[in-house]
Design goal:
The structure is a homodimer of 112-residue chains. The first copy, chain A, has 112 residues and is of the alpha+beta class. Chain A is built from three helices and four strands. Chain A has one domain: 2-Layer Sandwich (Gyrase A, domain 2). The first copy, chain A, has a four-stranded antiparallel beta sheet with strand order 1-2-4-3. Chains A and B meet through helix 2 and strand 3 of A and helix 2 and strand 3 of B.
């Protein structure tokens, strides 16, 4: 298990490559409740959080938006009544980068 | 074509029923760009809006949240970089109610 929560995203360049399965396994071991989802043949990192109503869910969505801007790495966020589903992946490499696990850890911290 | 944009949602009760296909067709004729989507055997009303970046997309998500609270009817909102997808339906009746078309029209007005 490795802890990435206090690190920051690195810029994605043409030289950036997707994480290996071993690297994904290692980074995932540092998280709780995140699922690896294979969307459109790309691996995505996804988790849902429960809230009491729409207002609280939307407030969480906005918190995620703030850290996404700070790190210049943006997820998709599905906001619904009492629930937010966050999906991190790195569009440019069509899969998972260490940045996604950094942001997943930071997302968990927002929810705690 | 009928115009519902300046009307308000009515409370959903045990007596509320889903719109008929004819009613859906009539109400949909008053909207532009909305698709009827059959999710989990329930009809949903869905539309995507394009934006310049994540910040603008999230701002639109918040505008939708505000009218959703005002009308006490809440959609799912998928927020991503440069795009927001809004889905209206009425959970309690497992399908579409006039309220959903009212909210779709109001959502369009927010985007204009």
């Amino acid at each position: 298990m490795i802890n990435v929560i206090d690190t920051h995203c690195t810029p994605i360049t043409a030289a950036s490559i997707r994480l290996s399965n071993d690297e994904i396994g290692l980074l995932k071991s540092g998280l709780s409740g995140w699922e690896i989802d294979d969307k459109k043949s790309e691996l995505h990192l996804e988790k849902s959080y429960q809230f009491d109503d729409f207002t609280e869910a939307l407030a969480f969505t906005n918190k995620i938006g703030k850290i996404a801007d700070e790190e210049n790495h943006h997820p998709t966020i599905l906001t619904e009544w009492g629930k937010v589903t966050v999906t991190w992946w790195t569009h440019r490499i069509k899969g998972l980068h260490k940045n996604d696990f950094i942001m997943a850890a930071k997302t968990d911290r927002l929810a705690s």
